[in-house]
Specification:
- The complex is a heterodimer.
- By secondary structure, chain A is of the alpha+beta class.
- Chain A has helices at about 5-15, 30-35, 65-75, 125-135, 150-160, 170-185, 220-230, 235-240, 260-275, 290-300, 320-335, 350-360, 370-380; strands spanning about 20-25, 45-50, 60-65, 80, 85, 90-95, 100-110, 115-120, 140, 185-200, 205, 210, 245-250, 255-260, 280-285, 310-315, 340-345, 365.
- In chain A, strands 7, 8, 9, 10, 11 and 12 form a six-stranded antiparallel β-sheet that branches. A six-stranded mixed β-sheet of chain A has the order 13-15-14-16-17-18, with helices on both faces.
- Chain A is elongated, with a radius of gyration of 26 Å.
- The two termini of chain B are about 20 Å apart.
- In chain B, helix 7 runs parallel beside helix 8 (about 260-270).
- Classes of the chains: A alpha+beta, B alpha/beta.
- At the A-B interface, strand 13, helix 9, strand 15 and strand 16 of A face helix 4 and helix 5 of B.
């Protein structure tokens, strides 16, 4: 889960990575007072807190020289729409006067299966951009997670990029602290861009991105709290309460797919799309779902107004077909609209499951395999 | 032959007293798997389905001479369970839980690698060598002993394929769930060599999907080291970019890294047969095997 900048900045501060002094506001009242209460000096930078790249270009970052300007900018920016995202919070910080700007991040690298330090002396620009224009200016150092950050890594980093070796001590603190944050918060990415060297020779993080592994979030009460403040699609939210993953595929699609595994889900979507139909939503039940949970899953998917056909494909291993069937039956008993459900069951307790499905009154069709299910979906009979 | 597990496998079940642990231990015993011990902290001394339960993996291994372990424990206890098995020098460790934190697995991966231990999963259905042994939760009735080795990131796509293969009389030497997560303990490239060296295996099936570079690495390995025919399927062609498709590992980056197109291209260049669907895997196999 990607954190908003102010939350990332809070984490940096917690780990002793220097950041610019600032204040977060979520109302347009008394902006100048809030700025002076936070003891900020003008000029200040006002930054929209949205989870989208390129917000500067879209007008999401503005400068104010006094309280009046800050108030005016806030009134325009707060609660506005920025690239399709509503701005619910602004971060106001003192404007920095950097001497130099670098790029520093640690990401979880799938290839080396290590935390990977990415460092570039070209800071303040998108790293993907640098990767295209100056690939040789980007330094990548995989860290053996059993060893962590050792001094030689920092020495290597400074030597390779030609950065003043007197900065070794400060850089060491920042890198070690960023690494601790990365490991303790189960990060996929912890990025500081730009990492600035100010006129007094102090290193400061001017902007940051932190992306946290959602599987690790149960250990992080502060991040769980933060997640609750983010806007989420109601169906995604409802599904996640039952530990299901609801994915919107195409906004206008009228077919939904449900399966007990991501792989089969993807295969079904591939085959349905190949037949020229549009998949609107997909729901991954995960393994071992009970009848009660299956019922909720069917209800959630069918509550999407755009969906009129649902294909449920189950290959039972850890998931038992009879449990699935019982769940579908429960859901269909409460289903008021006339939506078509096509069910394909295979694997553990298949026979018991098929019997339950056959006892359902209404438009539930059973099929023997996926191609048959896709055929039924595309035939007019279903509508 | 067959790879990783066979009739000589002596299996520990970690988490044997839990709901899933009991259910699948029973299934494994029915299949003929030699489950020699269970482990649940605090429940040592009990027996489950006739299998002795121990407090620790180390004791279980000392008392029963086990040579593999499978973890039926929740995601949040997976790391500590794997650490325990690594520390006890169990040479084969299979993890099945979904939603294991990636950082947890990263440490497990590096520790296992350092000790030369073979680690599988997480988010995997396990391993089965049909007719010999199974360590996992797969519906074993659909598997049939034979000559095709199968590696899959997805459980459901693997079942689908195996089901049709068996119906056509095409059996399997060993089927391995490498798992759907971002950092699997073993990847395709780690296992292809085992199949190449296995006299029972005549052809290899890889069921990959979008995200990561495992298929590209497999392609490199195949080009250099594999002489047996390889059939590959990549799932997720129509998945939207930047969204995880349920498997934590199945995500195409905004820049296109991990896309199905790249993977198919690499595998094709390495001489693999590319299948468009699970049905087609079986059609290609029919041509090759007969």
């Amino acid at each position: 889960m990607k954190l908003l900048e102010y939350k990332a900045q809070e984490l940096f501060e917690k780990y002793g990575v220097p950041v610019m002094k600032g204040v977060v506001i979520d109302s347009i009242d008394d902006v100048a007072l809030k700025i002076s209460d936070a003891a900020l000096e003008y000029p200040v930078v006002i930054k929209a807190q949205v989870q989208v790249g390129g917000r500067g270009k879209a007008g999401g970052i503005q400068f104010a020289n006094d309280g009046q300007q800050a108030q005016a900018i806030t009134e325009k920016l707060l609660f506005s729409d920025l690239k399709g995202f509503k701005v619910n919070k602004l971060l106001i910080v003192e404007k920095a006067a950097p001497d130099k700007e670098w790029y520093l991040s640690i990401m979880l690298d799938r290839l080396t299966k290590c935390p990977l330090i990415i460092f570039s002396a070209l800071g303040g620009v998108d790293i993907e951009e640098t990767a295209k224009t100056d690939p040789d200016k980007i330094l990548k150092i995989p860290i053996n997670p059993l060893l962590g950050i050792q001094d030689y890594i920092i020495r290597y980093m400074l030597t390779k990029t030609g950065i003043d070796k007197n900065l070794f001590k400060d850089m060491k603190i920042i890198l070690k602290q960023l690494y601790s944050l990365f490991m303790e918060y189960g990060c996929m990415l912890a990025e500081i861009n730009p990492l600035a060297l100010d006129k007094n020779g102090k290193i400061i993080a001017l902007d940051g991105k932190v992306d946290i592994d959602e599987s690790a979030m149960h250990r992080l009460p502060d991040i769980m709290e933060f997640a609750k403040t983010l806007p989420a699609s109601p169906l995604v939210k409802e599904a996640s309460e039952f530990n299901f993953l609801y994915i919107t595929i195409e906004e206008e699609g009228d077919v939904a797919v449900m399966s007990n595994g991501s792989g089969m889900l993807m295969s079904c979507i591939d085959l349905i799309s190949k037949k020229g139909m549009q998949v609107g939503a997909a729901l991954d039940l995960g393994g071992g779902a009970t009848a009660e949970r299956i019922k909720e899953a069917v209800r959630i998917v069918l509550s999407n107004k755009k969906i009129d056909k649902l294909f449920i494909s189950i290959f039972g291993g850890i998931t038992r077909c009879d449990e699935v069937a019982k769940g579908i039956k429960l859901a269909m008993e409460e289903q008021k609209e006339n939506k078509t459900v096509i069910v394909r069951l295979e694997g553990t307790n298949k026979q018991e499951g098929v019997e339950v499905i056959n006892s359902i009154k209404g438009s539930v069709i059973t099929v023997d395999n996926i191609p048959q299910g896709v055929k039924e979906l595309s035939s007019g009979r279903c509508v | 032959m067959s790879i990783i597990i066979n009739e000589n496998t002596r299996l520990i079940v970690q988490g044997i007293t839990g709901r899933e642990g009991i259910f699948h231990t029973e299934q494994m015993l029915k299949y003929g798997t030699n489950v020699v011990a269970g482990v649940t902290p605090g429940k040592g001394g009990q027996t489950v389905l006739g299998v002795p339960v121990f407090d620790t993996v180390k004791q279980a291994k000392e008392e029963t001479n086990a040579n593999a372990t499978i973890l039926f424990v929740p995601a949040r206890f997976t790391q500590t369970g794997v650490f325990e098995a690594i520390d006890a020098d169990v040479p084969v460790i299979i993890t099945i839980a979904e939603h294991v934190p990636v950082h947890d697995m990263m440490l497990c991966y590096h520790l296992a690698k350092m000790k030369g231990i073979r680690l599988f999963g997480p988010n995997s259905f396990g391993i089965i060598s049909p007719g010999k042994s199974k360590a996992g939760f797969m519906a074993h009735k659909i598997f049939k002993k034979g000559n095709v080795g199968l590696l899959s990131r997805s459980a459901t796509n693997c079942y689908e394929t195996v089901f049709m293969m068996s119906n056509e009389g095409i059996g399997q030497s060993t089927c391995i769930g490498v798992g759907g997560d971002m950092m699997p303990g073993s990847t395709f490239a780690d296992l292809l060599g085992d199949f190449e060296n296995d006299s029972q295996t005549q052809a290899i099936v890889i069921i990959g999907e979008i995200g990561g570079s495992e298929e590209e690495l497999a392609a490199e390995y195949i080009e250099k080291h594999i002489t047996k025919p390889v059939i590959a399927l990549i799932a997720g062609k129509n998945a939207p970019k930047g969204k995880s498709m349920g498997h934590a590992g199945a995500i195409v980056s905004a820049d296109g890294t991990g896309s199905a197109e790249n993977k198919e291209k690499a595998l094709k260049q390495a001489g693999c047969h590319i299948a468009e669907s699970t049905v087609q895997i079986v059609e290609i196999l029919k041509d090759i095997i007969r």
